[in-house]
């Protein structure tokens, strides 16, 4: 059995989009998929990262991500095309 390709990247958010996956009774309970494009300066690559949020708390945190933010994501590399994000950390600039 092949081991999953776990990765960790750090870079600058260049684009962020939210797509609601299914309709729900309220905005706070519906799962959402966030697609981030992160510029990784060491490799000089733009990397697509997908994050599915199923809890209201995680969705609220994901809504704070803005273009220009510095972020670190951990997840699974899907066939070298995009990263399925398990967790992320935003770095707040002073």
Your description of this structure?
- The protein has one domain: OB fold (Dihydrolipoamide Acetyltransferase, E2P), CATH 2.40.50.
- The chain contains 1 helix and 5 strands.
- The longest helix is centred in the middle third of the chain and has 7 residues, at 56-62.
- The mean pLDDT is 85.
- The radius of gyration is 14 Å and the shape is globular.
- Helix content is 7%, strand content 55%.
- It starts with 5 loop residues before the first strand and ends with a strand.
- It is mainly beta and 94 residues long.
- Strands 1-2-3-5-4 form a 5-stranded mixed β-barrel.
In short:
The chain is mainly beta.
How do the helices and strands line up, and which of them pair or pack?
Elements: E1 6-20, E2 32-40, E3 45-53, H1 56-62, E4 70-78, E5 82-91
Parallel strand pairs: 3-5
Antiparallel strand pairs: 1-2, 1-4, 2-3, 4-5
Which consecutive residue ranges, at least 5 long each, have pLDDT under 50?
none
Q: Calculate the mean pLDDT score and round it.
A: 85
- Helices and strands, in order, run as EEEHEE
Give the N-terminus to C-terminus distance in angstroms: 46 Å
How much helical structure, as a percent, in the residues? under 10%
Record field, number of beta strands: 5
Shape: globular
Strand content: over 45%
Work out the helix count: 1
Q: How many domains would you count in the coordinates?
A: 1
Radius of gyration: 14 Å
The CATH C-level name is Mainly Beta
The CATH homologous superfamily name equals: Nucleic acid-binding proteins
Instruction: Specify the CATH architecture.
Output: Beta Barrel
Q: Helices and strands: which structural class?
A: mainly beta
CATH fold type: OB fold (Dihydrolipoamide Acetyltransferase, E2P)
């Amino acid at each position: 059995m092949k081991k999953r390709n776990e990765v960790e990247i750090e870079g600058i958010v260049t684009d962020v989009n939210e797509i609601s996956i299914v309709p729900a009774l309220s905005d706070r309970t519906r799962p959402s998929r966030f697609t981030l494009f992160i510029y990784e300066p060491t490799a000089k690559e733009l990397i697509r990262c997908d994050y599915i949020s199923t809890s209201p708390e995680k969705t609220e945190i994901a809504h704070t991500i803005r273009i220009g933010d510095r972020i670190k994501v951990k997840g699974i590399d899907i066939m070298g095309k995009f990263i399925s994000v398990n967790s992320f950390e935003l770095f707040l600039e002073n």
